[in-house]
Structure formats: C-alpha cells, structure tokens
C-alpha cells in the first residue's frame, strides 16, 4: 500500500510541475519572450516546483519521525 501511495504522489507532483512549467512558458511567450527564453523560464518553474516538493517532503519526514 505504501508503494502505491508513493508512486501516486510522485505522479501528481510531476503533473503539477509540468502544468506550472507549461503555464510559465506560455506566459513568457505571450509577454514577448523568445522561444529559448520561454523554455528557460519553463525549466526554472519546473525545477522550482520539484525543489519545493522535495523541501516539503523533507520537512514533513522530519516532523513525522
């Protein structure tokens, strides 16, 4: 049961990170940024969401033990 929960949570975090990256890239492109600049902003948003998820996971793990 725990493995299924971990896999489902990982999938949800990845989907949210991809949606945030797509939104950031689209907003950057609408703002007039070039394609490389908008891809860079999308990549930064993707890594920011994953970093935030890892930090929250580490904090919650420390609290639950």
Provide a descriptive summary of the structure in words.
The protein has 65 residues and is mainly alpha-helical. The protein has one domain (2-64). Helix content is 91%, strand content 0%. It is built from two helices and no strands. It has helices at 2-30, 35-64. The longest helix has 30 residues, at 35-64. The radius of gyration is 15 Å and the shape is elongated. The two termini are 19 Å apart. The relative contact order is 0.12. The model has no long low-confidence stretch (mean pLDDT 95).
What is the topology?
Elements: H1 2-30, H2 35-64
Helix pairs in contact: 1-2
Task: Please provide a brief summary of the model.
The protein has helices at residues 2-30, 35-64. It is mainly α and 65 residues long. The mean pLDDT is 95.
């Amino acid at each position: 049961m725990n493995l299924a929960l971990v896999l489902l949570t990982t999938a949800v975090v990845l989907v949210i990170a991809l949606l945030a990256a797509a939104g950031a890239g689209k907003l950057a492109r609408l703002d007039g940024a070039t394609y490389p600049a908008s891809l860079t902003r999308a990549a930064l948003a993707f890594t920011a969401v994953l970093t935030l998820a890892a930090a929250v996971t580490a904090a919650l793990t420390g609290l639950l033990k």
